[in-house]
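WARN no homologs supplied; continuing
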Amino acid sequence: MSELAWRRLPEQVVAAVIDHPDPRVRRIFAGGHGAPMEHKARLADDPDPKVRRALVGAAVDFGFSVPEGVLEKLLNDPDTGVRREISMLPLPARLRVALARDPDPEIRAKTCVSAWEHLPAGDRNRLLADTDPRVRSEAELAAFGRHPIPVECFDRIPDTYRRESVAQSRMLARDLAERLATHQEARWRSRVAENPHLPVDLVRRLAEDDDSEVRRKVSTHPALTEEERSAIEVGFDPVVRYHLPAWVRARQDDAQFMRACAASSNVLIRRAAACAENLPADVVERLTEDEDYAVRLLLAEHCRQAPASLLLFIWGSWKGLSRHRLRAHPNFPRQGLARFADDPNPRMRELVFFDDQAPAELIHRLSHDENPEARWHALHDARLSLERVIELLQDPDPNLHRGAAADPRLPLETLLELLDDEKLAEPAATNPALPVETMHRLLDRAGVA
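OK structure emitted
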């Protein structure tokens, strides 16, 4: 059933799923990323609120664009959970205004800041006098806008997490900034150390803090000179994923500035520089040779000028999901990859399948590779023979034998036999080569009208 979430399904199957009597089936389909939102939009009228929540949750999680008419319908959904999910989406101003008037205080609190500049004075006053302290606090923060937040406003914030966020990002009154920068609890000093509006004298004070985490946070502050930055005693764990300073990427079009960042003694600033979409050739060269693996990884993931040699190195060494996105990079090699067929690194052997000139014999040989991912690539390669596709129905790896059962190259006779196979019936039922009358028979057997 999980294939409903990620596979692209024929239109007849989509229609059957949307009308399926079991809400679990509809919920799995609604919350998946396989079908485009226009195919799932009808589920905005689903009688089960869990299905409607899953529909909006998929838009939040996978970045689906929701038609404005569907958004308006869900904005008035009777289920609070659906509307809370909606509030997490990027919305037009008029819809944010509507959510700032929602009967649920959590939704009003979450949206009043982003809606504030579009709200009439009457709405603003109502939010400032709201019966819920979270809403009043958010309205007060919104009312200050870009002005410094005073101590009394900060102290009225009922949620500790939100106070930490304000300490970290908003312009603070001098007495509040001093209080946080000298706080006896290191977590408050750590939060305010990241605040880009913090006065430079307090930044320099935090650079000598006894707590290593505070020093690490302040070491990337934009107010410091490179000389001051390099003097801070701070260590970095090479395997930890640290938050990178946003102010570096904000100036990625300034070539001279990016040269300075790429040469910084602070590895987090170099990592942030590597996230730029475009960089001068000399900066790319410097970052390509950086001693920090994460700098090279980020350069490969983000920079259009990352060289082919770096892309291949990251392909072979990185285990993260972003590895597969490297193939879309304009500098990723598309020819000569068959030379990796005998590479001891199984990830490098996978490159053979991306070489259009690799012979069918090589694809067949790699379909027997000990690495199941190489066999998976072979199965989905048009150069693999039908005979070998049928053999892969017996592969011990579930992804392989299930994938083979769903392969449209299978002869109809074989495909129909698989529908009676306990292990392979489900993936075979998703095979797009199934005749329409067989699909209807399966749906009738499942009790779908």
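The first helix runs from residue 3 to 6.
OK
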